[in-house]
Write a structure and sequence with these properties.
Radius of gyration: 14 Å
Low-confidence stretches: none
Largest sheet: 7 strands, antiparallel
Number of helices: 4
Structural class: alpha+beta
Mean pLDDT: 93
Number of strands: 7
Shape: globular
Helix content: 25-40%
Length: 137
């Protein structure tokens, strides 16, 4: 992303399953969430104008395009339809797991779309990571 207008990160410590790759953790956080959570996430992302791939698309994770994938890092991206670009970063390091979100707001319309979601966003990220870690134990 050429510019970041919003960023947030949450950290799970300690990582209860250190043998999991970053991609496996990303799948645990997003795809292994219950159906209601997955539906709410997808509905929220599309309401912000993020273009998601159809379910089960190759090279995607819950509609997010996989841009970079190593054992320790996976970077996901969703393209804009309404001026809001987003990336999700999952980074595994020793016994911790980082989930970070980066958003670029291209215009006033995108800022208006993002404003109501911004205050809830950190709690949603924390809850998703917490639930994935609890499922892993």
């Amino acid at each position: 992303m050429p510019r970041i207008d919003y960023e947030n990160a949450v950290l799970a410590d300690p990582d209860p399953a250190p043998d999991r790759t970053a991609e496996r953790w990303a799948r645990a956080v997003l795809e292994d969430a219950d159906a209601d959570t997955r539906q709410a996430l997808t509905r929220g992302w599309t309401s912000l104008g993020l273009a998601l791939a159809p379910a089960g698309s190759d090279g995607c994770l819950l509609g997010w395009r996989v841009c970079r994938n190593t054992l320790d890092t996976v970077l996901l991206a969703a393209d804009p339809t309404l001026g809001l670009r987003a990336e999700l970063l999952f980074r595994r390091h020793e016994r911790t797991l980082l989930l970070a979100c980066f958003i670029q707001l291209d215009d006033d319309a995108a800022r208006a779309l993002w404003a109501p979601a911004e205050s809830r966003h950190p709690q949603v990220m924390h809850r998703l990571l917490e639930q994935a870690v609890s499922r892993a134990t």
